[in-house]
Amino acid sequence: MKNKKAELTTQQLVTMVILIVSFVVILFLLFRLNLGKETEKELCYNSVVLRAGSVLPKDSIPLDCHRSYICITKDGSCETMTKPEVKKVKTDVEVYQVLADEMAECWWMFGEGKVDYVGKDFFYKDNYCSICSQIVFDDSLRDISSFSSGTLDKNKFYSYLANENYTVGKTYSEYLFKTNNLDLLKQELSKNQSTEVTFGTIDFSNQYFVVTGITSEVAGKGWKYVAGGVVTVAGIFIPGVGWTWAGAIVGAIIISAGEYGALQNPEIIAIPVEGQGINNQFMAPTIVEANSEKFKALNCQEILTKA
Which one has a higher pLDDT value, 69 or 15? Predict the structure, then answer.
């Protein structure tokens, strides 16, 4: 009888060990796949679609969208942000891919320019913005030769967007801006400037937002920007293409360190696009220094995401 009891106890112990090991493996896989973060993004997307399709006033249906906190690092360390989602990279191209994916996910979460999730606003809050991510760049990125100066050339990054596929047969640029002709955009915008218009730089000593936006139905055509006279919305017309450039591009938002009317070192900080099948205009996802004058220049009259 004692041997039988001992045998049963051994079986129970083996079963317990198997259960514990299985539980640990499942936890490891969940951590590796980061399913919780994906669920947050899906919840945001679902709340955007639900609000857009509701017959009730838009503001009666809350958006369940939260800002992500990202640290891009080469050595795995990140001293400037508490408990971020760590993105470990080895090359400049991998840094570009992290940033491109953050922009693409932001665009997807808020309906890709196909849904109106703000409706009519008779209180003239024209510009609604959503901060999808807050990003820090770890000092270890300076060990990558392209970033030894502690800066990232956004012109090279936008070139990456125009050349790297996001999905089969469609680049990041086509997905976000509905075109790959970003160089042509810069050329057209530079014609009336004393210096070439660029996409600027990212300084690793600062934190950055990935932000997108939408105008209300009553805002009319054109993204509204008023920021101390340092911002202009420059529309473009390309011969042979006109304003129907893939049905999307309507211009660019340019900011300058110079005085109003005399743009010096003009920089494209965002690209507005027309809504697809709706009257709203959208600000395609852009990367802008957090809480900076450039961010203020976007004139985000309401932030829809939760910190």
Answer: 69
Burial class of 125 by CB neighbour count within 10 A (0 to 12, 13 to 18, 19+): middle
Structural domain contains residue 138: yes
Range of the domain at 87: 64-303
How far apart (Å, rounded) are the C-alpha atoms in residues 61 and 236?
37
Whole-angstrom Cα distance, residue 132 to residue 270? 15
Give the pLDDT confidence score for residue 39 in this predicted structure: 80
pLDDT at site 237: 39
Rounded alpha-carbon distances, angstroms, from residue 156 to 76, 96, 104: 24, 9, 17
Element (H or E) spanning 208, and its range? Answer: strand 208-215
Q: What is the pTM of this model?
A: 0.79
Instruction: Kindly state whether residue 46 falls inside one of the protein's structural domains.
Output: no
Question: Residue 200 is inside which H or E element, if any?
Answer: none
Structural domains in the chain (count): 1
The pLDDT value recorded for residue 241 is: 35
**How far is residue 283's CA from residue 248's CA, in Å, rounded to a whole number?**
11
Cα distances from 84 to residues 60, 69, 87, 214, 258, in angstroms, run: 32, 5, 9, 27, 36
Residue 58 located in a structural domain: no
The answer to whether residue 11 sits within a structural domain is no
**Which strand (E) or helix (H) includes residue 14?**
helix 2-33
Tokens 């004692």 found at = 2
